[in-house]
Q: What sequence folds into this?
């Protein structure tokens, strides 16, 4: 897990993006905080985490894909928080 991965999972969790209906687009994630990553970089990390099962794909918002943190992703995030202490 790198810093960007931790930030993305944290943003999804903190904003209640926990299912297909409450999911967030890459642009919404990017707009949440000024953390210096381009949307394309964020999307690549999301895709990596989607393949790992930490992030799921939500309902479309217009043409944009949306994403949410899965139960596995929440467990992974909690484990990562405890590793840093």
A:
């Amino acid at each position: 897990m790198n810093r960007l991965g931790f930030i993305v999972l944290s943003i999804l969790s903190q904003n209640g993006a926990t299912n297909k209906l409450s999911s967030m687009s890459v642009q919404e994630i990017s707009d949440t905080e000024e953390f210096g990553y381009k949307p394309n970089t964020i999307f690549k990390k999301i895709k990596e985490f989607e393949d790992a099962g930490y992030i799921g794909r939500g309902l479309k918002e217009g043409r944009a894909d949306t994403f949410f943190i899965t139960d596995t992703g929440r467990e992974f995030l909690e484990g990562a928080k405890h590793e840093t202490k």
The longest strand covers residues 66-69. The two ends are 15 Å apart (CA to CA).
